[in-house]
């Protein structure tokens, strides 16, 4: 939730540009199968992969892409797909929608590829074929990969289990010398694993409790120690495994992971998947409903360079999403969506954390929860942070300048500034945070996290980012008010941030408007939908493919839709709706369908056309 770009106003955040414009900004939940089989039935899910049954269900850029004409030959049968081969600037595409069952651990895309070319270079890729699933590029081939016959390609797409996505191939040629990309016998095979039975919407593992002990180097960029998590299976279906999300491995490679888990106890770790951001841990025995278990592991964290939500700006380290947390399983299976740098992928259930951070005394360490400092070994301090019913945990480390205050309702607020932030700017941010936390609390319910820490650095490229009781922000009244609003919309009222980003970003931006006295007047002055597929409720899979539209639609159009709903319901009814909805979902998870039902129950006006007009599906 980058606050402003990511989310300058909430990464839940908006971009800085979005803040300036006063417009804040994956597979939709609806795109996931409504139910999952009791067990994975091995299947091949690509239709007409050998092209022997005409063109359906494929979509191609021209009628000649799927062909049996002379000039190339099939791998099997008589038909094949022939992309490019015209010897001039040209693009061919081939795609079909596939649904990968959520109960399957393994999904493998295979195809046979023949490349012939008139290019003579041995070093320059002039013509290219790109294989994608959803918005993710799986592989790219070029004239440099020419061969005399077909070569079988195999690609792991297990991370897309439980999603309906587009499988696509795009061939591009430059201005001269042909390259032909010939495809045949395309298959996507699934196997392995189990999923909850149809209709079991229980989210599990439930009630996680994390205990973490870490020690840093002198700079605060290397942390080592251990972590354990105790959890309960809330589902009627036994748990055979759990997944840890190692989100920040996105910032490195699988060969050099910033987040390193080793010596796992209480289960057996498999090789990490989803670009090493998901670690499956097989439990020693099935965990029945109501039973609890504990897994533990050694943990190493290396903070990379860069003023990011996970990175260090010189002497100042920002450590968000670094602690491994449990993935969520529900009727759609395990939620193992990929990391997105454009917004958030983070989806976790409310948990308790006790985190002990041993660090040099010259470093201040603001963190999620309520912190106490005690003397450590020579020249070191031990910061112990405890937090109840939070979705994740973040901290920072550096020689910050700290100022503190208390809001009018008694919330302790701390502002930590990097060098270069003036004392007047810091005081302004302290005042903003105090007024924002009270304004949001008055509308949605009392702030429950004890204290609020704001870490201020004008070098953040994303504007701002929220965590429970802890936000990163530039010097911006709008951005900090937005990030503070995320304490309710994502923090207290949770959501699946990858598949339903509007539920935290649009709601937080609407709350920001209310806190700043804005009525949403002129919201739609420059509205322009990019396509029929563009909707407020689209997932990050869509927005990662259309990043320039994310802020405009999710933040901007999203909050405008809520202002419009307020005008339909009336100010009093809308205020009651949101407060009652927050109360009903306190420490729980919101869905689009549940919010729509709550809104409909608050008015005698049929809202069907409202949702359609505002492109709110689900």
UniProtKB/TrEMBL annotation:
Residues 442-613 form the Peptidase M1 membrane alanine aminopeptidase domain. One of its GO terms (cellular component) is cytoplasm. Residues 188-221 are annotated as: Disordered. Residues 210-221 have a biased composition (Polar residues). GO terms for biological process: peptide catabolic process. SUPFAM superfamilies: Metalloproteases ('zincins'), catalytic domain (SSF55486). Keywords: Signal. The keyword Signal applies. It comes from the Bacteria. Residues 1-31 form the signal peptide. GO terms for molecular function: metalloaminopeptidase activity; peptide binding; zinc ion binding. This is Peptidase.
């Amino acid at each position: 939730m980058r606050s402003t770009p990511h989310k300058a106003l909430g990464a839940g955040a908006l971009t800085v540009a979005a803040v300036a414009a006063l417009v804040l900004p994956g597979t939709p939940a609806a795109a996931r199968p409504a139910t999952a089989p009791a067990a994975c039935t091995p299947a091949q899910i690509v239709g007409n992969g050998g092209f022997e049954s005409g063109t359906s269900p494929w979509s191609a850029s021209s009628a000649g892409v799927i062909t049996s004409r002379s000039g190339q030959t099939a791998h099997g049968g008589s038909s094949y797909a022939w992309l490019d081969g015209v010897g001039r600037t040209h693009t061919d595409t081939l795609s079909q929608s596939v649904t990968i069952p959520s109960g399957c651990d393994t999904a493998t895309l295979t195809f046979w590829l023949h490349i012939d070319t008139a290019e003579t270079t041995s070093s320059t890729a002039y013509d290219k074929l790109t294989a994608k699933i959803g918005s993710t590029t799986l592989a790219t081939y070029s004239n440099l990969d020419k061969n005399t016959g077909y070569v079988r390609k195999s690609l792991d797409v297990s991370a897309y289990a439980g999603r309906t996505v587009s499988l696509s191939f795009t061939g591009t040629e430059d201005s001269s010398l042909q390259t032909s990309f010939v495809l045949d016998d395309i298959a996507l095979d699934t196997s392995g694993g189990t999923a909850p039975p149809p209709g079991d919407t229980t989210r599990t593992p439930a009630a996680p409790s994390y205990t973490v002990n870490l020690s840093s180097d002198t700079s605060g960029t290397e942390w080592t120690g251990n972590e354990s998590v105790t959890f309960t299976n809330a589902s009627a279906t036994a748990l055979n495994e759990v997944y840890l999300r190692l989100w920040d491995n996105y910032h490195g490679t699988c060969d050099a992971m910033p987040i390193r888990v080793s010596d796992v106890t209480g289960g057996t770790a498999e090789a990490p998947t989803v670009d090493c951001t998901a670690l499956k841990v097989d439990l020693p025995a099935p965990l029945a409903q109501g039973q609890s278990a504990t897994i533990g592991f050694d943990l190493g964290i290396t903070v990379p360079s860069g003023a990011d939500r996970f990175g260090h700006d010189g002497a100042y380290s920002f450590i968000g999403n670094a602690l491994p947390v449990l993935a969520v399983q529900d009727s759609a299976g395990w939620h193992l969506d990929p990391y997105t740098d454009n917004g958030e992928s983070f989806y976790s259930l409310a948990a308790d954390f006790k985190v002990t951070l041993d660090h040099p005394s010259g470093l201040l360490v603001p963190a999620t929860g309520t912190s106490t400092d005690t003397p450590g070994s020579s020249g070191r301090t031990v910061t112990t942070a405890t937090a109840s019913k939070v979705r994740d945990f973040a901290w920072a480390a550096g020689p910050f300048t700290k100022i503190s205050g208390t809001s009018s309702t008694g919330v302790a607020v701390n502002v930590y500034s990097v060098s270069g932030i003036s004392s007047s700017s810091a005081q302004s941010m302290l005042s903003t945070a105090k007024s924002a936390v009270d304004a949001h609390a008055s509308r949605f319910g009392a702030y429950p996290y004890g204290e609020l820490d704001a870490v201020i650095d004008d070098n953040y490229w994303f504007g701002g980012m929220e965590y429970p009781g802890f936000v990163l922000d530039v010097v911006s009244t709008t951005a900090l008010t937005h990030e503070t609003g995320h304490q309710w919309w994502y923090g207290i009222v949770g959501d699946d941030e990858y598949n339903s980003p509007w539920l935290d970003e649009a709601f937080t931006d609407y709350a920001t408007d209310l806190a700043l006295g804005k009525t949403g007047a002129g919201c739609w002055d420059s509205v322009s939908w990019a396509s029929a597929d563009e909707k407020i409720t689209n997932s990050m899979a869509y927005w990662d493919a259309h990043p320039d539209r994310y802020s405009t639609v999710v933040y901007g159009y999203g909050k405008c839709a809520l202002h419009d709903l307020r005008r339909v319901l009336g100010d009093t009814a809308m205020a009651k709706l949101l407060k009652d909805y927050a109360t009903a979902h306190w420490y729980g998870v919101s869905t689009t369908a549940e919010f729509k039902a709550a809104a409909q129950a608050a008015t005698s006006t049929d809202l069907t056309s409202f949702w359609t007009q505002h492109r709110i599906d689900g």
